[in-house]
Amino acid sequence: TGVEKNFHINRGLFKRNNKVLKAVDGVEFNIEKGETFGLVGESGCGKSTLGKLIVKLLNPSSGNIYFNGRDITKISKKEHLQYTRDIQMIFQDPFSSFNPRQKVIDILMEPLDIHFKSLSIDKKRKVVEELLERVGLTANQANRYPHQFSGGQRQRIGIARALSLNPKLIVCDEPVSALDVSIQSQIINLLKDIQKDLGISYLFIAHNLGVVKHISDRIGVMYLGNIVETASKEDLFENPLHPYTKALISSVPKEHPDEKKERIVLRGEIPSPSEPPVGCKFHTRCPLAQEICRKEVPVLEMKIENHRVACHLI
Ligand code: SF4
Ligand code: MG
Predict the structure, then answer these.
(1) Which domains occur in the chain, in start order?
(2) Phi, psi dihedral angles at 296 (to 5 degrees)
(3) Which protein residue has the closest C-alpha to ligand 1 atom 7?
(4) ipTM of the complex
(5) What are 240-263's pLDDT values in tens digits?
(6) Which neighbouring-strand residues pair with 222?
């Protein structure tokens, strides 16, 4: 079944002055080789935090992050170097992650300089040219600066940089949210092509379920720092079980005009992540909430084959 990337985040807490600001907790998922796991939820639910934890751009104040059984908050320098090579990230706004005074060639050479010190400059140039072509740009664009490119082209540069170290997994955090719709599908198709050729896995984070549906093999739904449901894309859309997932899916525009669909509108705002409701964190907005929901935390459990849900009533 190939290499399985098994993530498990256990009480990843972010504290300041002993106050918990944010938590990513009880989050577990597998991403198979060559597979895309989509992570969806409203803004502020902890998706980006989760992505940054996985690539080690953030360290929790406390808690554990397991990758294939190893706690990556406690690995040696050498393991850290290998890990940060294997797992790369692309961002919603690649521009802000580039140094505006660096040419594209320097942006793309930087990771090679750090990780492959012994490569000759000619070999590195060759790698950069190949990377640019791989993402649909040309070698003669290497001497330009980021501001000389369009938003879509800049995302291509971000993808090229993420590819430069031959990663096994790329965390894609809202990579198309800032782009025009026509450009969105170009970038998604590029990511799919790259995955087919190189067998890379993606963790694809987005608030837009339509976009996640387009690219994912399996999907996880996140609410206030917890994953509340995971299933294959087909199962999730055909048979959503968690009340929050049902509401999210009901808000996706219909694909056909005669499709039967009733919009479920959730009451209230998403509560503050620093003071989440006790029991099921969704109970303040859940149309089905019962007494038990205000007291006991539901655990993410397998309810149907390969379909897991955290809800007392299911
Ligand atoms: Fe709703 Fe209760 Fe299920 Fe939470 S556990 S989703 S509040 S029914
Ligand atoms: Mg975000």
Answers:
(1) 4-216 (3.40.50.300), 243-314 (no CATH)
(2) -110, 140
(3) 283
(4) 0.96
(5) 999 999 999 998 877 777 777 788
(6) 227
